[in-house]
Task: structure prediction
Amino acid sequence: MKLLRAALFTLVVLPLAAQAAGTLKIDRSRSFVDVDVKSTVDSFTGRLENYDAAIGLDEAGKIKTAVFTFKFADLKTGKAERDLRMLEWLGGAQPEGRFEMGALALAPDGQGHATGRFTMHGNAQLVEFPVNITQSDGAFTIAGAATLRYTDWGLKIIRNFGLLKVDPEVKVRFKLVGAPVEAK
Result:
């Protein structure tokens, strides 16, 4: 009898729960990911022009999972030569970055903290940063910023002519706006 109930639960209830869960479809026209870089001579901001954000929702409509992937070739700084040097510094070819959220803790007002693993240059490191998540008119807005020290991923400090240096700490700022869609 217990086995029959467990089988019915598995066949009926679990598929219904899975149908209630969904993902966020990101509106790229209202979203951005920027990287602020400081150097001895000038500072600049790179904008990530293409990325994949897979943000999963639980049955209650709360953010449960997040995986953010991109190619560094899609990070544009406004100077093509600088972009090419960045790719060479990262090892050439098609270097990629990936963030996988491990935990998200939110207060009722949407202020919170995200923790996860960021992988680049063949290394994965734990990163933590504050986030603010709000909902309005059926859309989620996820905003936050993280300061990353690129030397933690085995990358060398960038120096030019022995005098000019790129600060090893870069600030990643983001705002992702998305609406829930049902999981398939």
Observations:
- The two ends are 32 Å apart (CA to CA).
- The chain has one domain: 22-182.
- Residues 50 and 85 are 19 Å apart (CA to CA).
